[in-house]
Amino acid sequence: MTPPGRARGHSADDVARAALRILDDDGLADLTMRRLATRLDVQPSALYWHFPNKQTLLAELSDRIVGQAPSLLRGGGVAAEARALRDALLAYRDGAEVVSSTLALGLGASTALDRLTAAVVAEGFSPEVANRTATTLLHFVLGHVWHEQQRLQYDSVGVVAPGAAHLPDADFAFGVDLIHRGLQAMASAPTATTP
């Protein structure tokens, strides 16, 4: 017997692309398996042929979001990799929340962390220090973008808190530079040791 989703000709890629459209149009809270099935004109059970649960679907979306980071920046340094990741996360509504929740569950590819780690290793740091630095940078980028995306959503519905500040590009660059300079200072300290 052919599963219903396959009978209609939907592939895993079709399901993921439709899910990304819902995410971008309506946000993570409205991305349900039922809504996705309705969008694809299939029964919700048909989706589980491609993704056994919503978490694996979100992991696929996370990988696709992170995969949007321009590959031309590879080898461009720590700041370039952080900026590429930020841009990829901002390209989709709730992109930072999807990627952060997927990482917290230990799902999806480690592409973002791998690219940041490689950028730090390229500066001559050990893989252990590079991985720790990349993890710190990844958490900073995810948190910063999550805050940016929340603010954008609040602004779009006219909710403006008194004294709430936007997070301009300069603030993001400052945070990445602060982490990067801290790493360089640690390396140049006369008694520098690996924590």
How do the helices and strands line up, and which of them pair or pack?
Blueprint: H1 4-7, H2 12-26, H3 33-40, H4 44-47, H5 54-67, H6 78-90, H7 95-104, H8 111-121, H9 127-156, H10 169-188
Helix pairs in contact: 2-3, 5-7, 6-8, 6-9, 6-10, 7-9, 8-9, 9-10
Could you characterize what this model shows?
The structure is a single chain. The protein is mainly alpha-helical and 195 residues long. Helix content is 66%, strand content 0%. Helix 6 packs antiparallel against helix 8 (111-121) and helix 7 crosses helix 9 (127-156). The chain is globular, with a radius of gyration of 19 Å. Mean pLDDT is 87; it is low at 1-7.
Q: Which geometry do the CA atoms define?
A: globular
**Strand percentage:** under 5%
Element order, helices and strands?
HHHHHHHHHH
Low-confidence stretches: 1-7
Report the count of strand segments: 0
What's the gyration radius in Å?
Answer: 19 Å
Number of helices: 10
Oligomer: single chain
What is the end-to-end distance? 58 Å
- How would you state the average pLDDT, rounded? 87
Q: What is the percent of helical residues?
A: 55-70%
Largest sheet: none
Which structural class do you get from the secondary structure elements?
Answer: mainly alpha
List the defining traits of the structure above.
195 residues; 66% helix; mainly alpha; globular
Briefly say what this structure is.
Helices cover 66% and strands 0% of the residues. It has 10 helices and no strands.
